[in-house]
C-alpha cells in the first residue's frame, strides 16, 4: 500500500465511528480525509477557526479563499451552517459541545496519553487547537500511521514527546488495528484487513490487552 | 464623528514598543492593507498578538524580516519557518498559547476579566510556571487577559458609525481583537451608510471601533491582489 | 434528528431537584409557553437561575406560589414582592448576583471555564466569603461558572436543525443559557426549514439546542396572550 | 418645585455633562429622563439588557413590547443600533467600553463612595447592573435628590448603607448643586439656579470643599 492508500484506509475506518447527528471536529492530516466517507448531512463538521457545517469542496469553481478549515484548506458551506468567532468556537470545544474530535498523533501511549504538538529538541512553534480539543471533546479518536517514517512504533509504552493533555484518548485507529482505552488500559479491538495479530504485536511498543471479541476486518 | 481614514493616517497610531493585535487565521481575515502599510511605517520593538506570523516574507512575515517585532504571541508559528530562525538567533521572543486560550484571553482582555481558569494545557509544558488549581477533581490553569495598544482587524463591511459585519471564516479573531485594544482600526471591503446594516446582524457594535479604512489589498483565489 | 416537540413532551426532561435556567429579562424574551407548561408539571425542589422570578403570580411567580422552587439565583427579585415573603418564611433560598456576573458565570459554564476574576462586587457585601485577589493594583473577586440540567430559552425563529435567531432586546440571557445546560429547550415563534436562516445571522448554532417548541403564549402590548 | 420639576432639572443638567459621540448608560429613575435633553444622535445610549442605540419612544403606536431598557420601559431603535446578549453587554461595561454611566443613589459620601442597591434591615433582593456599571464605566455621574423623603441629606459623611463598589463616583448632580470628586475629596462646583451656598451647607451632611471658580447657574 502507498502511504496515500494507508491514510484513506484509516480515514474510512474512522468514519464508521461517527454516530448520526454528532458534531465532529476534524484535525489536520488524515482526519481531513474522513468527511468524504460520511453521508452528507449525517454528521455536522465543526472547524475551530469558526464554523459549524463544513462540507467538502467538490468543485474548484466554488473555491472561496475566505472559507477554510483549521488546516487552511478550502471547504464549502453545508445547509444550516453557521459562523462564529474563535472564542465562541473554542467555548464550544472547551464547554463539551463537540461530540467527537479526530486528531493525528506523534505518539500515543498505553495509558492513552497523546503527544501531537511538539518534538523534543526542535523549537516548539505550534500548538493550534490540539490542547483545547483534548480538554473538551466528548470522545477523542486518534488516526495515525502505526509506525513513523523510521519504522518506530507510534503506539508507545510511555510518550517521550511532550503530552498534549492530561486527558486520555478514547480510540486509536491505524492501518494495522483499532485500539480502545478501557479502564485506563490499551485494548486491541480490531485487526485491519489482512493484518495478523503477530504483526501488530511486532510493530507496537505499547503493552496491550486483546479483546475477547476481537474483530478481524476483511 | 469621522472614523473613516486613509491607511497611512490610521497607522500613525502605532508607536515603537506598542503591543498590537492583528486579526486573521493565516491570510484569511487578515487586514492585508494595514499590514502592508505597517511595513512602510517606521516603528520597532513591537509585540504582535496574532495566531500566526504570516508566511516567510509575506504579511506579518515582512515585519519580522524588517526586525520590527520584538515578541510574538500566538498559537501556530510553524507556517513561517523564519520565526524559528529569528528565535534561535535571539532576535525574537515567543509566547506560544493554545488557540482556544489565546482567543479566550483576548476576550477576557476586552471584557474586563482579570484572569480565568481553563483545563486546556493543564499538566503540559505550556502550563509550566502557571498557577494551577483543582476544581471538581480536575486540574485547571490560571490564564491572564490579553490587551493591546492598537488592534488591526478585518471585516467585510462597516457602516459610517463603525458597526462591523464579517464574512464566513474570515471572522475568526477579528471581533475579539476589536474589543481588546485602546485603539481599533477596522479594514473593510465596503463602507455603507449608518442604518444600512441590520441591527440584528451587526457583530461588532460601533463603540469598539475607532477608525475605518477601505481595503486596497484583498485575498483572491490567486493570492493577495490589489483591488 | 427530530428536535421539534410539543411543550408537554419537552418539559418531561425536568425532574425534581433539577437546576433550571430560564431566559428573559422580566417577561421580555421569557419562554412563556414553557413556563406555563411547567406550572402543570409535577416537580419540586427546583433551583431556578433567571434574572427575576417573574411578577407576583405571573410567569415564574406562579411556580414560586406552587412551592416548586427551592432556590432562586438571579440579579433582581424586587419586581416580585412575594420573593421576599417566601425568603423570610424560610421557604426559599436566594443567591443574589450582579447582573454582569450572573451572565458571565452562565457564559463560563457553557464555555468550560472553571472560574474567573472580576472587579464587580469586590469589597461589597455580595463578595463576602468569596476569594479575592489584587491584580494590577485592583481588587478582584473569583466567581464560579453556572450550569444547569435544563435550560428554557426563547428565540424568534428556529430552523429544523435547531439554529436560533432572536428579536431585539428579547435576546438577553437566552443565547447564554442555551450553552450552559445539559438539555436545552428552545421556544420559538416560527420554525423554518434548514437553510432558510442566513449562516452569518445565526446567533445560536444548532449544536446547543436539543428540543424546539412552538410558542403558544406571547408578549403583546396588552400583556401575555395566546397566539 | 414639584418632585417632577426637581427631577427634570437634575436630568437637564446631567445631559450637559455628555460629550458628543460618547457611549452612555442610563440607570433607572432620574437618568431615564436625560435622553430627551440630548440632541438625537449626538450621543449613543447603551442599555445593559443588550442594546446600543436606544432612543426615546415618541409614539405609543410604535411601542414594541420586546424592545425595552434596563428599567423594562419601552424604547425605540436609533439609526445604527445593534443588539447583543447580556454577557456581551456587560463585557462592554466591565471592559471599559461605556464612557459614562448615570445612576441614582441612596447615599453618596464625601469620599465618593456610592450606596444604591440595598437598605439595611430590608431583604437584599435586587442589585441588577449597578455594581458592574460602577466597576467598568469610564465616568460615573450620580443624579439624585439632595435629600431623602425624610429630609435627610443623601450626600453623607460616610455611607451607612452597603456600598455598591470600591470605585468612587466622579460627579454628583442634585437639585441644589453639582459636586465633583477631585483627589478623593468632594468639591462643590456649581450652585443650581436660585440656590445659596448656605442652603447647600445646611442640607449636606458631607464635608466638602468649595471650588475657587464656583459657578452659579441662573
From TrEMBL, chains A, D:
InterPro entries, sorted: 3-oxoacid_CoA-transf_B (IPR012791), CoA_trans_fam_I (IPR004165), NagB/RpiA_transferase-like (IPR037171)
Residues making up the signal peptide according to the UniProt record: none
Pfam families assigned to the protein according to its UniProt record, in alphabetical order: CoA_trans
GO terms assigned for molecular function: CoA-transferase activity
SMART domains: CoA_trans
Source superkingdom: Bacteria
Matching PANTHER family: KETOACID-COENZYME A TRANSFERASE, SUCCINYL-COA:3-KETOACID COENZYME A TRANSFERASE SUBUNIT B-RELATED
UniProt record similarity statement: Belongs to the 3-oxoacid CoA-transferase subunit B family.
Name listed for the protein in its UniProt record: 3-oxoacid CoA-transferase subunit B
Organism: Neobacillus rhizophilus
UniProtKB/TrEMBL annotation, chains B, C:
GO MF, any single term: CoA-transferase activity
Gene3D superfamilies reported for this sequence: Glutaconate Coenzyme A-transferase
Pfam families: CoA_trans
Signal peptide range in chain numbering: none
Keywords: Transferase
PANTHER family in the record: ACETATE COA-TRANSFERASE SUBUNIT ALPHA (PTHR13707:SF60), KETOACID-COENZYME A TRANSFERASE (PTHR13707)
Name this protein carries in UniProt: CoA transferase subunit A
Species whose genome carries this gene: Neobacillus rhizophilus
